[in-house]
């Protein structure tokens, strides 16, 4: 059985990162033999929508359960729609928590334990640099909606990387996924579109502040 754990490192000796959408890595663990794959969380620096994008990516990996510390309502909705068990309020060593899961001592829940955009608020200390409104080459020659490295809402890598055209923006978008049915993929794409709208709204608000 494959499960996913939000982690601070890339192996089973890492500790659990308690913020699902903002963790640096997800560890995909096969509980039968304890093999482990570290998947970087490329959505961690998004100004908004990090949780829902991370949830969509994890769902596409074919896991059956997610173990983390805290998780917001939008990510929980993804897990509910894709049938994933969600185990919250976990901390400590990844290996120990996986063993507890295998022993049946952890309980799943369908209730979020973090408010929407909690991770974005926690990352506010990154300041205006994380908003990255002027670090790139503007709207133009990139993929999707932007210039590839222009209007970055986190890390300055741009709308073209985060909210790009179909097939270039989000993990799994435009690519066949054996883990998702047609209806699930459609719902997933709609959620991604909603996250793009949130980002665009945040960018427009920032433009007004700077004007």
Give the SSE layout.
Blueprint: E1 2-7, E2 25-30, E3 35-40, H1 50-59, E4 65-67, H2 73-82, E5 85-87, H3 94-102, H4 118-122, H5 127-131, H6 159-162, H7 182-210
Parallel strand pairs: 1-4, 4-5
Antiparallel strand pairs: 1-2, 2-3
Distinctive features:
single chain, 211 residues, alpha/beta, Nucleotidyltransferase, domain 5, five-stranded mixed β-sheet, 34% helix, globular
Number of strands: 5
- Tally of separate helices: 7
Tell me the strand order in the biggest sheet. 3-2-1-4-5
CATH class of the domain at 2-109: Alpha Beta
What gap, in angstroms, lies between the N and C termini?
Answer: 53 Å
**Per CATH, which architecture of the domain at 2-109?**
2-Layer Sandwich
Indicate the mean pLDDT: 75
Return Rg in Å: 17 Å
CATH level 4 superfamily of the domain at 2-109: Dinitrogenase iron-molybdenum cofactor biosynthesis domain
């Amino acid at each position: 059985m494959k499960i996913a754990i939000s982690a601070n490192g890339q192996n089973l000796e890492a500790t659990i990162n308690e913020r699902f959408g903002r963790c640096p890595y997800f560890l995909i663990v096969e509980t039968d033999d304890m093999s482990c794959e570290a998947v970087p969380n490329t959505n961690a620096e998004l100004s908004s929508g990090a949780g829902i994008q991370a949830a969509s990516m994890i769902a596409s990996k074919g896991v059956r359960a997610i173990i983390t510390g805290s998780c917001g309502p939008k990510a929980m909705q993804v897990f509910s729609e894709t049938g994933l068990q969600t185990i919250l309020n976990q901390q400590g060593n990844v290996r120990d928590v996986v063993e507890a899961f295998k022993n049946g001592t952890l309980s799943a829940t369908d209730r979020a334990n973090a408010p929407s955009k909690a991770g974005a608020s926690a990352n506010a200390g990154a300041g205006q640099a994380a908003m990255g409104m002027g670090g790139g080459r503007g709207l133009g020659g990139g993929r999707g909606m932007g210039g590839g490295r222009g209007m970055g809402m986190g890390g300055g890598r741009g709308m073209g990387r985060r909210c790009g055209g179909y097939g270039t923006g989000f993990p799994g978008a435009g690519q066949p996924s054996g883990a998702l049915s047609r209806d699930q993929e459609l719902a997933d794409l709609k959620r991604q579109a909603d996250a793009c709208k949130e980002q665009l709204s945040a960018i427009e608000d920032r433009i007004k502040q700077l004007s």
